[in-house]
Amino acid sequence: MHLDVLPGQERPHAVPKEKIGKIRIFFLCHGAQGMDICDDTFVAIWMSKIAVLIICNNGCTVSEVIIGYYVIALLSGMLCKYIQMYGDGLAGAVIMGTGSQPGIVLQIGKLICRMIALFRGWEYRSAFVDNMAFGGYNKQFEPARTPSDWLTKDEAIIDACVKHPWSTFRFTVNGYYQMFRGIQYIQNPAHIQQIPKNLPLFFVAGGDDPVGNNGKSVTQVCQQYKDAGIRDVQIKLYPGDRHEILNETDRDVVYADILTWLNGHLA
């Protein structure tokens, strides 16, 4: 297994070299998980045509990287949109830490962003919108050591996260508006129907991940994909794990399970 990362990003935890085989995976992290683009540029790429999904150290583009490969993404919304638009070029996908939101909530979120932008401009960074989007995730872990305890049980990773500017910056209202818009897109049943029916999908998530409503939303999304006629949809929930399962205390188990799934689906 060969792991490629974005320039400036630390490489994920190592996978045992004796299990490498011929699997090539490109990890993609958004700003809050280690990316070195701390503005709305990345969000705009995610929500538009996704002209460049992954930029590796050698400058590969989507057509050079993704076609014929399995793809794993930590930003599940981006991957879901990608497989809806370009799934024919993939051999499979592993989707981590996904969830779902009621349509009315997304509509209200967009409306609030538009109202704030009317008076403050689209580049304004709103604490209110930020709290509306992410503020509730830490509640089930109160009393919490930090505002980021919902990410993982590994306190060393949490401490590094809260000290790093790449993990603590705030999106503009434009960034949040596009995020809400993108979630609406990927939850649209017509867009889910665009996913190739023979594309193997593996959903993995923490059982205590508030983004996935502690596994309930993940299960719901899996069922939606099955109902859309996708034939090979599997799910694995890790009890006690939070949002970033590749940074969890049992991450070796997560890596091993993903590798087992990949090997089981290789032609």
Topology:
Layout: E1 2-4, E2 24-26, H1 41-47, H2 62-65, E3 70-73, H3 76-86, E4 92-96, H4 103-120, H5 127-134, H6 155-163, H7 173-187, H8 189-192, E5 201-206, H9 216-227, E6 233-238, H10 251-265
Parallel strand pairs: 1-2, 3-4, 4-5, 5-6
> First CA to last CA: what distance?
16 Å
Oligomerization status of the protein chains: single chain
Q: What shape does the CA trace take?
A: globular
Report the C-alpha radius of gyration, rounded: 18 Å
Summarize the structure.
The chain is α/β, with parallel strands linked by helices.
Protein described:
The protein is α/β, with parallel strands linked by helices. It has ten helices and six strands, in the order ββααβαβαααααβαβα. The protein has helices at residues 41-47, 62-65, 76-86, 103-120, 127-134, 155-163, 173-187, 189-192, 216-227, 251-265; strands at 2-4, 24-26, 70-73, 92-96, 201-206, 233-238. The chain has a four-stranded parallel beta sheet with strand order 3-4-5-6, sandwiched between helices. Strands 1-2 form a two-stranded parallel ribbon. The radius of gyration is 18 Å and the shape is globular. The two termini are 16 Å apart. The model is unreliable at 1-70 (pLDDT under 50).
